[in-house]
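Before relying on records like the one below, remember that each one covers exactly one chain. Contacts with other chains, cofactors or solvent are not represented anywhere in the record.
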Amino acid sequence: MDFNIPLKQHIGSLSKVIVKENSTVKRGQLIAEADGLGANIHTGVSGKVKKITETAVIIESNQEEEKDNFLKLNKSDDHLKMIKEAGIVGAGGAGFPTHVKLDCELNNGFVIANCVECEPILNHNISLIEKDPTSIIRGIKYVMGITGAEEAYIAIKAKNKKAVKALEEEILVEDNIKIKKLRDIYPMGEERAIIKEIFGKWLDPDQLPLEANSVVLNTETIFNITEAVEKRKPVIDKDITIAGKLNGGERRIVKLRVPIGTPIKSLIEKEGGIKGEYGELIIGGPYTGKAVSLEEAVLTKVDGGALITLPFPEYTGSLGLLVCACGADETRLQDIAKKMGAEVVGVEQCKNVVENNGNLKCETPGECPGQVEKIMKLKKAGAERVLIANCSDCSNTVMCCAPKLGIPVYHHTDHVFRTLNYPLTRRLKLEA
């Protein structure tokens, strides 16, 4: 089987290949070095370098890998150096090089473990915590040591009771690590939303957690730090949730420690394959994931989900789009509208959206204003229905006005949630 290992699995530039075609490589071997802002890339499989392209190294391998069998990193007491050598990046989707984020001094500051697993359906972070909470706590301590932070918070949804209990048992004797239980709404895992919940104050859209004397790290990123420091293991495996229209029923499977570069199609086939006709393969979560080709998708350091959906409902009427910074962008909404067969007659942005360095950001993610004005504009433009990409709270405000105006609502996550009989993003009860 061919393992396609992209040279850009992070924010920054493509990594620089250091192996040659037809050479033999071993699991854990460095195959591409960071070039400027970026991260080292190692192979998760042993085999032959079949081809090198401008964007990837393709390795042919037919052997089953033992997870604890890999080439180890050079030993060092410098934990930040180990993190850099291991190629650790934000595993929650952002892909920012972790050694750059942690190259700071947090005097009287805080480490925040983002264990929220913000996207619905995905469950690999929570599964990892339930299985190995000790590694998460040790990873937090390593980060505290690197940055000089004196305290740490673990942000996690209160509904994940088993994971919460596992963490609580691990920190019984830790006075400087606390758990912050959060509501089950989207996007509670957004960095500024977490900081607001912990410290009671919003950062501006252009501010980073450092402005709150904090660093925020995803669950799996923290786990990878522990692996690098204690086992000298580079980032060669990734956790992933596979869910949706699978043979054997609409279901969800969590896979821990899958070699990076593994074809997504092969993972799905191992679970029985796709059941009949399907709509999309989404890599990532329902809110921010991207629709990709089944034949081309491969697992990278930042991919957390592979979701196979029902086909889209057909709607050939006029449609208005309401874009939100917390969910799908306009390009994604236009793509969904096209797949439905609809005619887009108007596009509006959530009134909480601001632009920051060419990207859309929400002023107060998860705490949103009313959308009456925007829905009325879309109706005036001729929209008979609206397609929205809003967070939980914004969707509530849409549902307070759109039905009264005679406008049915379709959320861009609907085809994912209907596949798994998950509650649709409409007027939701915002419970803990």
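The chain is about 25% helix and 25% strand.
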